[in-house]
Specification:
Number of helices: 1
Radius of gyration: 28 Å
CATH class of the largest domain: Mainly Beta
Number of domains: 3
Number of strands: 26
Structural class: mainly beta
CATH topology of the largest domain: Jelly Rolls
Length: about 350
């Protein structure tokens, strides 16, 4: 992704809630091939619409229409009220077979001379679609329009194509997890693994703190991108892989609904989110696990014997897969010092190597 021009002044205002998208333009509706985009004020009709019968650019693209220009300088404007009291994020996808300077401006009239604040500026020179975006921390005026400006820079007959223009209001600090929860069943006294994703949906780099909370589980380990930790960094739009392992207390009553809350928070107290692992205590598989699976010695000095048959998977405390194989009657494996979790027959068993 290209490095984007970002305004650096910080707005000294109250924190506003995430307001969601206020514009999405994919050029899919009411447009005609070779004509100017519907809903836009186009200077000298230099921006036109095009159509391809199949997906033509990228995974994010979900339609076939786009707008393009081959003019030496092209402007188009759209009415959109912008407030000094809010923060915005602009993004679009662009491709060019030559070189274009691409700019997004804000102003109070649909004309080049009325555009007063530059919001994004970058060079489009790739024959593959790239995403261009800018986080705007300060709007200088309550603008009525934004404009898209394209200037040929390294060519005389090249084409610039843009698509999927998106404008939304964003928080400086905003967190999310996906999925928000997972449900399963497990036997008291056994361990279970769970995985989900953390997403920084704000526009500020973060240091995120983790706090797992539960009255039903012990020996809880949480890892971010494969590293066990109590905090981790997250850039804007970054997706962080979160994994966890935990032991249900052996005294939990069969049939009880149990939970672990994994809370994510910032030390400024300005944003939080939470993932919940739900588990119903069950006796299913306990007898089978103890009668058909034998893992010894435990603790071990490194040589571990597994008796039984079937596929096994061995994970470390970071949730990383260490070994997977099919066991036939009896297998001897060698492991380094540490704590492991062996999954087999739908059950998870803890193994300590000293």
């Amino acid at each position: 992704m290209k490095k984007i021009f970002i305004t650096l002044l910080i707005l000294l205002a109250v924190h506003f809630a995430h307001a969601g998208g206020i514009l999405y333009e994919g050029f899919e509706y009411a447009n005609h091939d070779g004509e100017t985009p519907i809903g836009w004020n186009v200077v000298n009709e230099t921006w036109l619409c095009g159509y391809l019968e199949k997906d033509h650019n990228r995974i994010a693209h979900n339609g076939s229409w786009y707008t393009y220009t081959n003019g030496p300088e092209s402007w188009m404007f759209m009415e959109m009220n912008m407030s000094t009291q809010l923060r915005y994020r602009f993004s679009l996808w662009a491709i060019s077979d030559g070189g274009y300077q691409l700019e997004i401006w804000a102003g109070n009239e649909a004309s080049p001379s009325a555009m007063t604040q530059l919001l994004l500026s970058d060079i489009v020179s790739s024959c593959n679609y790239e995403k261009f975006q800018a986080y705007i921390e300060e709007i200088y005026d309550n603008y009525l329009y934004f404009g898209i400006h394209a200037i040929q820079s390294n060519c005389s007959d090249c084409i610039l194509t843009i698509d999927d223009i998106n404008v939304d209001m964003v928080d400086k600090y905003a967190l999310d997890v996906s999925p928000a929860s997972i449900e399963t069943t497990m036997a008291p006294g056994t361990q279970e693994m769970f995985k989900f994703k953390f997403i920084n949906i704000g526009y500020e780099p973060l240091t995120v703190y983790i706090t797992p909370v539960s009255e039903y589980f012990t020996d809880i380990h949480i890892s971010a991108n494969g590293v066990e930790c109590s905090s981790f960094p997250a850039e804007p739009n970054e997706i962080v892989e979160i994994s966890g392992v935990a032991t249900m207390k052996p005294e939990i009553t069969i049939g009880s609904l149990t939970w672990i809350d994994v809370r994510f928070w910032l030390d400024c107290g300005c944003a939080t989110t939470m993932f919940t692992f739900w588990a119903t205590a069950t006796s299913d598989g306990i007898e089978e696990n103890h009668t058909t699976t034998s893992i010894y010695p435990n603790p071990s000095d490194g040589q571990v014997i597994i008796e039984g048959s079937g596929n096994i998977s061995i994970f470390n405390t970071l949730g990383q897969l260490v070994l997977t194989k099919e066991v036939v009657e009896k297998e001897t494996i060698t492991l380094d010092k540490g704590i492991y979790f062996i999954q087999r027959n739908g059950q998870t068993e803890k193994l300590i190597v000293k």
